[in-house]
Queue: 2 jobs
Job 1
Amino acid sequence: MSDVTTAARDVLRLAQPRPRWFAPGLLAGIGSAVMAVALLACSAWLITRAAEMPSLALLGMAIVGVRAFAIFRSVLRYLERMTSHDAAFRQLAELRLGIFRRIVPVAPAGLASTGRGDLLTRLVRDVDDLQDLPLRVVQPLLVAGVTAALSVIGIWLIVPMAGLTLLVCLMLAGVLGTVLSGSLSARADRELAPLRGALADEVLEVVENLDVLTAFDALSPRLVQLARTDERLRRATLRRSVGVGVQSAVVALFAGAATLGALFFGIPALESGGGLLSPDLLVPTLVVAVLVPMAVFEVFGMIPLAAAAWRQVRVSARRVAEVVPQAVPAEIPVDVVKPQELFSPDQAFGPVVLELTDLDARWPGQVDTAVAGVTLRLAPGDRVHLAGPSGAGKTTLAQTLVRFLDYTGSYRLNGVEARLLAQSEVRRVVGLCEQRPWLFDDSIRQNLLFARDTATDAELEAVLARVGLAVWAAQRGGLDARVGERGALVSGGQAQRIALARALLADFPVLIVDEPTANVDSAGADALVRDILTAAADAHRAVLLISHTPVPDELVTARVTLPGLR
Amino acid sequence: MRPLDPRLLRYAHAARRFLLIGALLGFAQTLVVIAFAWLLTRTITLTAAGESLSTIMSTLAALACVVVVRSVLIWLLEVAANRGAAQVKSQLRARVMAKLAERGPDWVASQQSARLSTVVTTGLDALDNYFARYLPQLLLTMIATPILIAVILWQDLASGLTVIIVIPLIPVFMILIGKVTQSVQQEQWKALQRLSTGFLDVVGGLGTLKIYGRERRQFDRIRSITEEYRTRTMKVLRVSFLSGFVLELAASLSVALIAVSIGLRLIDGALLLGVGLFVLLLAPEAFLPLRQVGAQFHAAADGLAAAEELFTILDDDSVATVPAVSTADAAAGAGLAFPYAGQLGQAAGALRLEGVTVRRGDSVVIDQLHAEFAPGELSVLRGVSGVGKSTLVAALLGFVPCTGALTLGGVAVAAGATRPWLAWSGQRPGLFRGTVAENVALGAASAEPGRIVQALDWAGAAEVLPSTVLGVNGDGLSGGQAQRVAAARAIYRALATECHVLILDEPSSALDSDAEARLLAGLRHLADQGRIVIVVSHRPAVVAAADRVIELQELIHV
């Protein structure tokens, strides 16, 4: 298992079920495989011995054995599949949670570099692929390994040289098959996952922007380009197929060689004598030694498949490890060990004063600061309009205030440096209404409730009315109406209003609203701005409204303009 | 589940070729299996007869040859299966994408984009197992099994009859269990799709969840989603694996029966060792392909369920694909026949809408609209949210079917494959991975750097460098910048193809007043060149700059 980074190894560790879940499937698998070998050995012995016409009583045990092996082999196989799949699925929850646990500290600012289609592929595809680690890699390797070892010992006891031949053939088939096909396909394998990601990105781009492509007569060239990406993926897949095929062929070749070897060494041994188990080697025992390799290689056929699955799993693990940064970037804040508290958990929020002095912030992986030298004071009752040209860092400031991004300079809440508070504590008092609010593929109710899960339907309807959605929600069928995937069923303005309703429900002492009017028509925008600022005035709340559009004077208490950096 | 969906052969030619090659290779493989069993039996009987190694050396050499040929055939069949899968996936993917293009943006918008793209990518990959593991075994079942049974029958009637009695039981069980599995299976596929969006929903919305201190609670949600996934899948697997169990049991029990029966008859001297051993070696081979088919059953079903989803898209002809404007000469492709294409100098005249009506399902969104947009004028289209402004724009683009007359300079501009008279930018920027220059010159025959700079300038985005590289969905620009680059793209098209009409849908909603003023100045230049410029907007600055304001009235729905 070389060539795997520590990060990928951590991911792989998440995919392997704990021994308590894994062991039953493994034991059943080994049992079933051993029975399969025993069935052939016993049948062959039975027939060859019977041809010597002994009394029936001498064959009684073999007859019982043949039937028992046939039944238990199938029963154990069923048990193996059920228990091993169940274990892998149980582990899937741990796997997803483990990955999610790592994403949580860096999201959203630390994940921006991943394309969305790619992200989709990674989470659906790679996590599913990681499940193959126990099912298609570890389990078959162990089952085939143990069965092969037992068989080699058994044959060795009958005809030592045949046992050795079998061992050599198994090892050659394993090593050569894996190495040969590995060198042929390793590159293609590594190519596959990124190509699939690229293809998924392109497909998503075409599907989402079909209107643009159609209107600009660019659809055909884009489909040609997509076909080209498809072609690259196909070529990589074809290269790999040659490798996989070589593996099976090599295994079949050595399976034949093992049988030939058993005949070659076994036939002279009829005269010269066999191994420990059969010093006077007889034909029925020889036939067992000749036929068992066939059954062993059938079981052993799992190994090349496991090797191929392993390469796939390794690539997936590496990609999952890439999505999830191992170390939190310097630009993303990390909680101090013993954070201070603004308010004790059981205490109601008092007034909150937010002060910024000469604050700078930067995005991960960027050299330039996105916002610099901001000095600002927000007290309860304040309604501040923050303006500034595009790119001046207005959104960066919003992300910094809710501690998605770290800062230099000073950011104090009631005099306490925000860095010394837990991020969750900061976000308890400083809320953000994002520029592109995320709506969950669920009902309006569920999209509101998570801001305050104790809210009654009446409260939810009231807050919808406050953001001007009462009529719309009623037309849609009330709180149970669904918003669609990523809010597909609601317009930009409606999404913004739902997001605002959420923020109002949560009742943050400090509320930052980032460009609420970006997708709202101007008539509605004025009303929206009025709603936001009215809510603040009666609730001892400070509001920072980030907007490039003009805000009427009577609605705000102060204005701040961020100068453009460039 | 049908073992082989005929639609697969219809929609993917590569599948047919694979079946032919696979059948030939399967036949050859069967012959090799028989030869191997026969030669091995002969070696053993000769040995039992007391022959020495040197006398049976030639038989061993023949056996070695057979071993080599067998491995080559195995390799070829695998390669053919993998190639077949890759080619079929490409063909199906291309067909679905072409179908989406044909169905048009309006239909696609009514689907979940993530779901569609999952079907075309991840969903299709489920066909891999179908081709690599299932189909070859299915072929072998149809070719090898009958031949092997015939050979066994010929050698030993009793054993042959045992196989003949047991083998039909297997398909019977497969069908019975398959029927039970089918409904559960489809349910599982849907659940899987929901889970695919569900987990992404949590990860994508993580920022929002953190703002509300909800990120910790998602652990429970993910756990329950995954737990549901496990129980659902295990429910399917319990049945699927049961079929596998029955198959394996039938196969190994009949081998056991044959072995015992042969053994008993050998004791009586009623059978020769050569025949008994030969039959014993062949009997498992007769069951092997069928057992493999059973073992790969659920993997194959996954692939077929995914294919089913594609076939539903491909087969669906329920909605008219090309929206037609019902004017006298509104033949498909009438846009191509637009006589003034590329000749802005010869002003075509006004864009006239007469009695234009647009329906969405059963409801009328735009009813009998009459409007006129004159060349050289900047017109603003406005109306309250949801009144159908964007729907009207979609109708002009030909994405949504409408009735009534739509003429430019007296010539009907119907929805066709192209719309050379029109340049447009929508509410969503809809930018692509690549440079800003590539985005601006989208669809143009050539990308002229000077014109790109001019288009950006007139869109109020002079500060955006054409060489800026964007990520997926235009990542790397602020919302306002993306909006202006999208406007620049429409302006570039208007300039490059000299088209008569420029429509911008809410181009300044994310712009500050400076940028908006620069955009409006640019639009004025475009109008001054004799173009019809239509802006959908509420912004006071836009309305103030307009030569004409057209108010869309809300329809009263009773």
Job 2
Amino acid sequence: MNSVRKQRLIVVLAVLAGLAIAVALMFYALRQNINLFYTPQQVVAGEAPLDTQMRVGGLVVDGSVNRNEETLDVTFDITDGKGSFTVHYQGILPDLFREGQGIVANGTLISTSRFEAEEVLAKHDETYMPPEVQDALEKAGHPGAKKADGYSE
Amino acid sequence: MVWQTIKRWYHMLGSPRYFHTFSSRVLPWLTPIALITLVTGLVWGLAFAPSDYQQGNSYRIIFIHVPASSGALMGYMALGVSGLVAVVWRMKMAEVMLKAIAPFGAALAAISLITGSLWGKPTWGTYWQWDARMTSMLILLFMYVGVIALQNVIREPRQAARAAGLLAIVGVINVVIVKYSVEWVQTLHQGSTLKLFGESTINPAMKYPLLISMLGMWLLYAVNVLIRARSEVEWRERRSKWVQTLIREGGK
């Protein structure tokens, strides 16, 4: 490689390295804001701001979903295994909402144990399989089958 | 030995004229293979693959969404390499490639965003969230559009290539962010299903049509790049003797 090209290569690589470092630092500085939601652990620990618009995310606790028979009010607990709190929502839940499923809720935190949601989104994992396979896994008592509990809901 | 072969190919394909004859030989069989592969994968996935245990049939959009997204990301990596060669070695074919790779990649990035959005509504309950994966993918589309725009806005083709090349190189950082956004930060978007190392979390009856669709999309991208690069080469070399002869012979 002749010296002119070598110099150009060095300049380009230096620019790239510099920008990569800048981006990495930016990511590091903004790491809280880049995360789409606060986890239950953060909420319980009081790291999440009260009375401001924000998102929380976690797994819906089994057996915690309470629907009001006459209105669209629903309450449920969400957890990440390190903390849990109650979410209240009024409206239609997405199809994939079920116990044990990951969700992201947008709203305000009233206290470290109660969240008023204006919008509830269902997260889904990266697992795809036919229903028959899921049934077979469930019968065999495979741990991966647990996620689909309440599918008939 | 391998290095020697790569080096020989690099120099041969670096010649616009050699590239032109080479692509005329490759395209007649690569085009049908690409189309057959893509159609096979899509028909298999959309019509014959089993439905999903949670999402039912709506998961089938994966057969378009994932091939488009992976194509857009790989295309950008290729764009970055072309940019590097164009900026450092000033190779003409790299400048041609810089121009040939961008449009299809931009289209795929747009398809990825649109299909993802349509998939998001029934599964997540929203068309769009500003989460890290979606935002970085939108930036990828803007990078593609930026590279295309820079090439069009600067008249002198060699200067245009250098500017666009630099932008292409810088944008590679964003490709890394798109890829790892779902692992580094909390996102609404789920993690990767297909894993290069380790077991993929998708049933084989769904995985094979998906892999075939992806391969088909990549091949179609390659076909598109070859066709675009050919016309760009013809335009750039329009005053040369071999292109003049080509025109006289009726473009065959």
